[in-house]
Fold this sequence. Notes:
Layout: E1 35-44, E2 47-56, E3 62-68, H1 76-87, E4 91-95, H2 110-116, H3 123-139, E5 142-152, H4 154-163, E6 171-175, H5 191-194, E7 202-207, H6 215-227, E8 232-237, H7 254-270
Parallel strand pairs: 3-4, 3-5, 5-6, 6-7, 7-8
Antiparallel strand pairs: 1-2, 2-4
Amino acid sequence: xxxxxIFLMTTLMSGxxxxxxxxxxxxIHTDTTGLEAGQAQIPVADGHLPAYFAKPQxxxxxxxxxxxxxxxxxxxxxxxVCRRFAKLGYLAVAPELYARIADLSKMSDPQEIVxxxxxxxxxxxxxxxxxxxxxxxxxxxxxxxxxGVTGFCRGGRDTWLYAAHNPHLKAAVAWYGPVKSPTxxxxxxxxxxxxxxxxxPLLGLYGGRDPSIHLADVQAAAxxxxxxxxxxxxxxxxxxxxxxxxxxRATYNADAARQGWADALAWFKxxxxx
Length: 274
């Protein structure tokens, strides 16, 4: 049995987070017909992380996408993203990166989540956990030679960091997320700091009406990467705000979400993930 003093979350939350205003229209639901999907336990250095995975039925190996959550945990929206990838032939897996720190299913204040969870999560642990997630995927039908990563909000920021960390990645897609933010002893570098060290092509999808992100900073980080010889493309959806792909949130922008999803799939395909 896991030591709950270390891992406060041993199972994933059900439904959606209560930490944001909900959209007026129903969220997208992708069924599991033709899929294997459900909770997994990913071995890590100090125990097991709960995670959600989805993949086509069969032995594989399947192209693999690591999905990095928002700050709100691996809830129904993140699970559905995994199923959407699986319907297209991928193995997709989303680890609960904050399981050691708090039970996000019991938290509803975004500021409290940021202050008491997100800012206390060491980047080195996050990167190691993502490596462990890749290893789990390879042992469960994933193809490590066709590996991509995508992340949303804070996960977009972490996507940049992982793209500078894992040399086996073929491509990365970051959905919003800051490229500049306060640093600390446990979060010592930003995406901008690491832009010149990217190890795979990166697509960034951002909202033109996102008050939390300065687009000039995003373009500057992309230029640092390009100057170092890396392939980075930034696409800005002029009428979209933060979280525009999250169909359960009031900030959902259906047109930007559909186009961004198509752009992400094309990016993975063109760089050898699909």
